[in-house]
Amino acid sequence: MPGSSLWLLPPPSHPLTPLLTSLISKTSTRFSSPYTFLPHVTLTSDIPSSIYSSDPQAWLDELAKRFPPAAEVSVQFEKLEVGNIFVKKITVRVRKDGVSGLAKIAREVVEARAGEAEKWVEEAYLPHLSLLYSAIEVSDDELSELGGVVENAGVDLGGKGEMGGWVGGRVVSVQTDKKIEEWEPIAVKDL
């Protein structure tokens, strides 16, 4: 991926944090993928490194002054899906309305012209939480089986209750133009 990305992670103390981390690891093993990663909803990508240059934390701290309050940011799961893009091979779709305000602010870093970020959120943004990065084909039967594994682990794919998503969270900046194995937060801001 070119540039860096802003991700929304569940709060560190939320019960989904260790559960989703474990599910990502198990899913990667199950489908023979070497990639594991932090559980996250991508807010935007393609952020040029020149924007945050030598101090990504100061840049994120400044951007965070425009973030909505934690209570106005909610991740609510909708369903399990298979995608055609490597980093979206198996995802949990997330309702857009709970993260669109935060995603718009994040996207304004990339889409500077008035109205462009809002248009991107409305027309192109598909919030999701990836469970697998891979180029393999995933059958309907495999997806259905994985859905059972996810639900048996306690995740509510219908978005209900504490295990159906989270409120607030932690925004991190990740240099996604590096190798996936090197995708680690370079700046962190709790909502």
TrEMBL record:
Q: What InterPro entries does the record tag this protein with?
A: Cyclic-nucl_3Pdiesterase, Cyclic_Pdiesterase
The signal sequence is: none
Q: Which GO terms describe its molecular function?
A: 2',3'-cyclic-nucleotide 3'-phosphodiesterase activity
- A Pfam family found in this protein is CPDase
Q: Which SUPFAM superfamilies match?
A: LigT-like
Recorded superkingdom:
Eukaryota
Could you give a single Gene Ontology term from the biological process aspect?
A: cyclic nucleotide metabolic process
Q: Which Gene3D superfamilies match?
A: Cyclic phosphodiesterase
Which PANTHER family did the record assign?
2',3'-CYCLIC-NUCLEOTIDE 3'-PHOSPHODIESTERASE (PTHR28141:SF1)
**What is the name listed in the Swiss-Prot or TrEMBL entry for this protein?**
2, 3 cyclic phosphodiesterase
Organism annotation: Lophium mytilinum
Taxonomic lineage of the native organism: Eukaryota, Fungi, Dikarya, Ascomycota, Pezizomycotina
